[in-house]
Amino acid sequence: MARKDLIAGNWKMNATHLEAIQMVQKLGYRLDPGDYDRVEVVVCPPFTALRSVQTVIESDYLRIRLGAQDVHWEAQGAFTGEVSPLMLARLGVKYVIVGHSERRHLFGEDDATVARKLRAVLAHDMTPIVAVGETLEQREQEITEEVIGGQLQAALEGLDPATVGDLVVAYEPVWAIGTGRTASDEQAAEAIGFLRRRVAEGWGEAAADRVRILYGGSVTPGNVAGLMAKRDIDGALVGGASLDPDKFASLVRYWI
Ligand code: PGA
Question: Where does the chain show beta strands of DSSP type E?
């Protein structure tokens, strides 16, 4: 079964809600209806801009999907400063990134937390984009597969094959994020091929055929086409280059 490509912009802690409105409007102008038939386009603004971006998407009838960068695992409660999956779902959020390396490394999120968040996202009928990736040290120690396989296993443990088939996984080597140092097409395809085999082993061929696995880490309009040409790579999770609507639009239209 053909997997639909997905290109998601992770704006991280950038853009006030006013800037976010302009960014999504510009992106909308630069994309053609046919682009959305080829690629699912997602933007993940900061929490404070979700409502504004949702309004633009709805009022301009844009086919851009709304994503969030993180979530808490409970629907409500005494969790000062957190945002719940229920709140996101009510805003029309379709995708939620869980386990981004900045959450894991800067904010101490462990595999158990990532697994809880992933389940909370699913429970509210949104799609998790679960991020995994090795550090430079781990790559040099040649334990990349152990690390990313372990992160994948911990996140997906106990899920049924149909659910796993609907997920999005993002392979994001930590050394490639925000560094301008992209993984080569071959390195990315190799790691993503490995993750797909792990899904096949744990949840069956049908799930492995359906699960979409993205690459992330210094993706730009200049290198996206090479990555997308790899059979196992189903899209990209883009940080820096997603902040400029011109750049992000040309990255989405990677075949042109
Ligand atoms: P980058 O970030 O494109 O700026 O490297 C990718 C990510 O963190 O998702």
Answer: 5-10, 39-44, 65-68, 95-98, 127-132, 168-171, 212-216, 235-238
**Amino acid identity, residue 233?**
I
77 CA to centre of ligand 1 in angstroms: 31
Which residue numbers are catalytic? 100, 172
CA distances from 76 to 68, 80, 85 (A): 17, 10, 9
Domain count, the chain: 1
Pocket test of ligand 1: the residue of 6, 7, 10, 215 to mutate, having most ligand atoms within 8 Å of its CB, is: 10
What is the Cα Rg of the chain in Å? 17
- CA angle 99/111/40 to nearest 5° reads 30
Q: Which two tokens stand for residue 26?
A: 């510009």
CATH code, domain carrying 120 = 3.20.20.70
pLDDT, tens only, 204-254:
999 999 999 999 999 999 999 999 999 999 999 999 999 999 999 999 999
Residue 196 sits in which domain range? 5-252
The model's pTM is 0.97
